[in-house]
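BUG: 3D viewer hangs when loading the predicted structure for this chain

Environment: internal workstation, default settings.
Expected: structure renders.
Actual: progress bar stalls at 90%.

Input used:
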Amino acid sequence: MLKLRDGIVELYRKVATSLPPDVEEAIKAAHAVEKKGSNAKRALQIILENIRLARETVRPLCQDTGVPVFYVKNPIGISQMELEKTIIEATRIATERIPLRPNAVDIITEKNSGDNTGIGFPVLYFKETQGSTLTIDLMMKGAGCENIGQTYKLPYEELKANRDLEGVRRCVLDAVCKVQGKGCPPYILGIGIGATKDQVTRLSKEQLMRKIQDVNEISSISDIEKRLLKEINSLGIGPLGFGGKTTALGVKIGVNHRHPASYFVDISVSCWANRRGRLIW
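C-alpha cells produced before the viewer hung:
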C-alpha cells in the first residue's frame, strides 16, 4: 500500500495545483467573449494568470484547499478498510508536503486537527466493481462555494415549482439568483434529483466530476442542462459577481427514481476552481 499511498499524495498535488484542462479551456473561451476593458474580462484574465502561476510554481490554486472528497471504485477483494487507512495517511502527508491548508475542525472543541483528518474528514465514498482496476477520484471542494448550495422539496409554492423538470429549472435559477456572485463564479453547477435528501446531495456533488463537454445520455436532461446554462449566463451576474456574460461554465444534472410522495432537488455549486482528478491503479 506504500506505493498507492504515494500515488494518492501525488494526486493531491495535481488536483490542488493544476486545474483540469476542460475547465481551463472553458474559462479561456469565456474570457474571449467578455467585453474588452470590462471588469468581467479583467477578472477572467486574473483567474487565468492564477491558473498559470499555480501550475508553474506547483502551488495551490486557492488558499482554501477545501474538503477532500474521494470517490473510490475498488475491485472485489480489495479491503475498503485498508484503502481508507491509506487515503487518510496520504492526506496527512499531502497536507505537510504540498502544503495544504489544514481545514478539519472538531465540532465540539473547535480544535483544528492540523492534518486534514478527523471524523468523516476526508469524505470517502466507495463502490465495489467487477473490474480489476482501482479508480480513485478526488475533488477538493472549497467552503465558499459549498456554503451557497441549496436543497429544494417540490412542489415549492413560492416558485410555483411543481414536481417536474420545469420545477427543477425554477429551483436552479432561484439558487443562482439568491447568491448574486458569492462563491467565486463562473460556477459549475451539479444538480441531483431523487427520492431522499441524502441521496440527492451526494448525487449533485458527483455531477461536478463530469467534464464540461460531457453530454447527458438522457436527451430531455441534456436539453434542460443546455437551457439552464444559457439562462444563467443571461442573468448578468458574471465572473466574481462583476457583471458580464459568464456566470456559469456548465450545468450537470443527475437523476434517481423517486417516491410518489417526494421529489427532492439539490444544487451543488463549484467555483471556477473545480479541482478534480483521477488516479488509476
